[in-house]
């Protein structure tokens, strides 16, 4: 179809405009600096910033406490089963429906964010938007010691507590992705950039991401 035909179709114009808006997806290992880096990138590019669906505080709580605080996360744990939701009373049909509903709703939210452009942390956005033009997928990693120290400083908690969070959170976030989307977000194969924030300062990491986005926009 010619550009002239697209130009005369408001719906197609809107679709093309949406796909032209840059999107950066970021997955981090706990404490690698995704919030700080993501906010800097969003500010530099004039884009909205969308944090992770579940906070560290929510993931730190046990399943019983989660049920009271966050019904969606409790449903995720139930769909994951095993140590998270238990096997005794699980119904296969119900579990599959839970997974389907969770995936469809998350897909809807992520694609809505992508339509307006933005920086999206977590949410399996690298998989959901894998074929979307103008999308840069980033993995932030680093040594455990550095990540725990940074997380403790950012959250204002003791290093010992941050270390416990790290052990749980890195596993929980990966298991969520495996259960719902069938991938391990810790592996580098789906990312355009992998940045070690133990070696690269956060400001420099943000600058590298912005520089990688701008040529795609051009």
UniProtKB/TrEMBL annotation:
<protein>
    <recommendedName>
        <fullName>Cytidylate kinase-like family protein</fullName>
    </recommendedName>
</protein>
<dbReference type="Pfam" id="PF13189">
    <property type="entry name" value="Cytidylate_kin2"/>
</dbReference>
<dbReference type="InterPro" id="IPR027417">
    <property type="entry name" value="P-loop_NTPase"/>
</dbReference>
